[in-house]
Amino acid sequence: MKTEKITTDILIIGGGTAGCYAALTASERSDAKILICEKAHIKRSGCLAAGVNALNAYITEGRTPQDYVDYAKKDADGIVRDDLLYTMSERLNSVTARLEELGLVILKDENGKYVARGNRNLKINGENIKPLLAGAVEALPNVTVLNRVNIIDFSVSDNKIHGAFGIGIENDTFYVIEAKAVIIATGGAAGLYKPNNPGFSRHKMWYPPFNTGAGYAMGIRHGAEMTTFEMRFIALRCKDTIAPTGTLAQGAGAKQINSLGEVYETKYGLTTSERVYGTVNENLEGRGPCYLRTEGISAGQEESLFKAYLNMAPSQTLKWCESGAPSKYNVEIEGTEPYIVGGHTASGYWVDTHRATTIRGLFAAGDVAGGCPQKYVTGALAEGEIAAESAAEYIAGTIGEPIDDGEITAHIAEIERFTAKDSSDFTTEQLEEAMQTVMDSYAGGIKTNYRFNEKQLTIADMKIKQLLELSENLHAEDFQELMYIYELRERLAVCRSVIAHLKARRETRWHSFAENLDYPEKDNEGWRKYVNSRMENGEIKIILRELTEEGQRLYEHSN
Amino acid sequence: MSIAIDREKCIGCGKCRDVCPGTLIKIDAVKKAYIKYPKDCWGCTSCVKECPVYAIRFYLGADMGGLGSRLHIEKADGLLHWIIEKPDGNVSEIVTNPKESNKY
Ligand SMILES: Cc1cc2nc3c(=O)[nH]c(=O)nc-3n(C[C@H](O)[C@H](O)[C@H](O)COP(=O)(O)OP(=O)(O)OC[C@H]3O[C@@H](n4cnc5c(N)ncnc54)[C@H](O)[C@@H]3O)c2cc1C
Ligand code: SF4
Ligand code: SF4
Questions:
Q1: What is the ipTM of this complex?
Q2: Same domain, yes or no, for A358 and A400?
C-alpha cells in the first residue's frame, strides 16, 4: 500500500450529476483548485450511467417556481423545507439552458419552444447526458479528477472539516486529501433492503447499487444533523427489469389497472406514495397483478417506447423484444425495495439555504442532501451550483488546516487490519445478505408489504448492531474488496438511522414509505414536524424540529 | 442480468473497464477483458457502448425472466444500432439517433 497526500481548495466527493455541476460552477466563479474524487469513472458513474428519459423538474410556460414548491410539498404531505425547494426551483430553467449548451437534445416545437410532458417535464434524448457533463468537467483547467478513488471518511475536528481519506481501488493507494471546503455529492443509498431479484440479478435495482450511502454514513459518524430518513423512497417500476414507469404513464398515458382491468389509481390518491400503496393493496386484496395499460397502443407508439427505453433502461426494451410487446401485453408493475434518496423523497443532510451542513466547511448537494424532494436531474444540478457558490465564498475566508498525523495513522491501521490474515468465517457478501434480510423482515421491506411495528424495529436495530460488530473482522484480499467492506459498513450505519427515524415518527403520514402499524393514522397535531437526528457518543439522538413557515425563503443553522 | 465478453473478439483496449460504474470489469494477464463480478452488473450497458469490436453482449438473467436473447450496440453514421439476437437465430435491430429527442 502506498500513501499519497494531496492538498486542494475545494474537494468534491462524488463526480455524479451534482458533483460535476458543482465543479463547473466552482471553476467559473473562483480560481480555486478543485479536486473531484469519484469511486468509478465520471464518464458514466452514478444515476445517469444508462441515461435518463426526461428532465422531470422544469418550470414550464405559465408556471412559477412557487408552483413547483407547492407540488413537491403536497406530494410529501408537508414535510419539506420551503426555502430549499424554492431556491432550487428558481434555478431549474437556467441549469436546463446550460445542459442544452453542453449538447443535450431537448424536444422543441416548430417555434423553437420546448415541448412539455405534463406540467413539469421536458422531453429529451438523455442517453449521453453523463458523457456530456463529464466532458465539460474534464476540459476545465483548474479541476483535477481522480477516478476509482473511493472516499471512506472525512477528517473533522471541532466540528470543522479539513479534508477526507480515500482508497485507490485499482492502485492500492491510501489517499489523504486536505481541503479548505468539501462538497459531498455521493448520491443516495441502495442495497439496504433485500432487492426485488435477490439472486443472480441482485443488482438489477432501480437506484444505482454502487451508491451505497457513503455520504450519509460519513456525516452521521461525525455528528452532522440528518433529516427525514423515515421518508423512504419506494419506486413503482416495471416488473423484473425495475425500469422507470413515468415514460409509460406520463408519456404514453398508460393508466394503472388491476388484473380485473379496473383503473385503481383514483381510489387511493395520486401522490407518489399512494400509487405504491394502491398497488400493494390491490395485490393484498386478491386483485393482482397490477399493470400499466398499454394493450392496443399503435405501432408508432410502440416504436417510440422501444427507443425511449433504450435511451434510459435498455433492459426493458430487450424484455419486450423477447417476452412480448407492450401493444399486445400490459406492462406488469411492482414496488421496489425501499431506498434512501434525498432527490426523490426528503432524506439526507440537514442543510441551510446555502446547502451548508451542520459541519463547518461541508456542503451537500443532490440525493445526499435532505429537505428538498423531487429534485431529479435538474434539481441536483441546481443544488450543485448553490453548494459550489457557497463553498467558493467560504474558502475566501478560511485557512486550510493540516490533517492530524494521528488520524492518518489510525486509518492506515484500520486498512491494515482489514487486509491482514483472514480470521473470520464470514464474508462481506454474507453480511450484506444478512443485513438485507433483517431490513426486509423487520424494518418494512417487500416481505412485509413495507409495514412494520415498534417491536420489529427494535429487533432490527439489535441485529444491525450485531452485524456492525461482525463487520469489524471482515477480510479483504485487495482494495476492491476493501471498498466492499467500507460499503457494507456505510449501509449498516444508514440502516441504523433509518430504523431510528422510522421508530421516532409515531404516525403514518405516507403509506408504504413509512407505514407504522402501531400508529396507522396520520397525526397532524403531533407530527407536522421534521424528524432529525445526530450521532452523540455512539447513540442516535432524535431531534424534532418545527416546520419552516409557509413561503419562508431563508433558513440558517442556529445550534 | 449481466454481460458476456467474447474473448476471441476482445482486443484488450480496456475501454469497457474504464467506464463501468461498478468497477466490475478487469483485464487479465493475456490482455483479455472479463467480468469479475457478474452478479453485480447494474445493466447500464455503458461497457457495451464502448467496445470498438462489439465483443460484449448484454442479457437478462433467468431470474428476471430472461429467455436468452443478447443485445449489443454498433455505432455507424452517428446512429446507435441496437441489435438483438434471439436464441432461435432471429436478429432484430432498432436504430436510435442521438440527435433526436424521445417522443415520450
Ligand atoms: C435509473 C434512474 C433513472 C432516472 N431517470 C430520471 C429522469 O428520467 N429524469 C430525471 O429528471 N431524473 C431521473 N432520475 C433521478 C436523477 O438521475 C438523480 O436524482 C440525480 O442524478 C442524482 O444526482 P446525484 O449527483 O445526487 O447522484 P449521482 O449522479 O448518482 O452521483 C453520485 C456519485 O457519487 C459517486 N460516489 C458514491 N460514493 C462515493 C464515494 N464513497 N467516494 C467517491 N465517489 C462516490 C458515485 O459513483 C456517483 O458518481 C433517475 C434516477 C435513476 C437512478
Ligand atoms: S452493463 Fe454497466 S454495470 Fe454491467 S458490466 Fe457493463 S458497464 Fe458495468
Ligand atoms: S472494450 Fe471490447 S475490446 Fe476493449 S477490452 Fe473491453 S471487450 Fe475488449
A1: 0.97
A2: yes
